[in-house]
Design goal:
Number of domains: 1
Helix content: over 70%
Largest sheet: none
Number of strands: 0
Distance between the termini: 50 Å
Order of helices and strands: HHHHHHHHH
Radius of gyration: 18 Å
Strand content: under 5%
Oligomer: single chain
Structural class: mainly alpha
């Protein structure tokens, strides 16, 4: 029977089961933390570069980097998911691509709402720290029921966003996503909460991966999975703060 399951599509029980059968040096918590830190440095460096381009030439100068980062990040993520053995090479590239996208979009939000980016960064890492403390203290446990509830909520949000993207092609906006009213703010609060709870599954997955002796390259793969959740959390917090600033 599976010991654990993650809502994060890049961190799955079956992947660790297969990896645990491979020989070689095993992953460790310290190694995962080190690689995650390195990826964050790459993301910040790329974000600073993209932000600088916006400061120099505005949206017209940074839009290419943002689009390239978003598309490149998505493509790299898909490759990493199916070719996890390549994560040591592609995960840093993913961090750079996401940095280009986040730097541009953060600069755009900052241009509209002064101080919003600093608040979003602080809340993102504050949430990360809080979830880690709650997980390590055993206050929130990644039980099967907990995983099932968060998985259902995450899937529902993903489907809702997909429908919204299709409707936007026909110039139809959904107020829950872009609106600054009570319902829009409430929706964003729910999404932020779900994104934060995904971190619990990710922490559990990393811990169980170490316990099962997953190979060394899974440190890169697990770091990539955590970054996927962090990027999502940051974007949702940024969206929520923008709604609050409009009121």
């Amino acid at each position: 029977m599976a010991l654990f399951q993650s809502n994060n599509p890049v961190l799955k029980q079956s992947i660790f089961d297969r990896a645990a059968q491979q020989q070689g040096e095993a992953m460790s918590i310290r190694g995962t933390v080190n690689k995650m830190s390195f990826m964050l440095l790459l993301l910040v460096a790329a974000a600073v570069f993209s932000w600088g381009k916006f400061m120099i030439g505005g949206v017209s100068m940074v839009s290419g980097y943002m689009i390239g980062g978003a598309v490149g990040g998505f493509v790299l993520a898909m490759i990493i998911i199916f070719k996890k053995e390549w994560s040591g090479y592609l995960a840093p590239a993913y961090a750079l691509a996401e940095g280009l996208f986040l730097g541009g979009i953060s600069a755009m939000y900052s241009n509209l709402y002064q101080g919003i980016v600093v608040q979003a960064i602080g809340l993102t890492f504050g949430t990360f720290a809080a979830m880690l403390i709650l997980y390590r203290a055993g206050i929130i446990r990644a039980t099967e029921r907990f995983k099932s509830i968060v998985f259902t909520a995450t899937a529902g949000i993903a489907i809702f966003y997909l429908v919204a993207m299709v409707l936007r092609l026909f110039h139809v906006d959904i107020p829950l996503i872009s609106g600054g009213g009570i319902l829009g703010i409430g929706f964003s609060l729910v999404v932020v909460a779900v994104a934060a709870l995904n971190l619990i599954m990710d922490f559990d997955m990393v811990e169980q991966g170490v316990a099962q002796g997953a190979p060394k390259y899974f440190e890169w793969y697990a770091s990539f999975g955590l970054m996927v959740t962090l990027v999502w959390l940051y974007l949702e917090i940024l969206r929520l703060l923008s709604k609050l600033n409009r009121r």
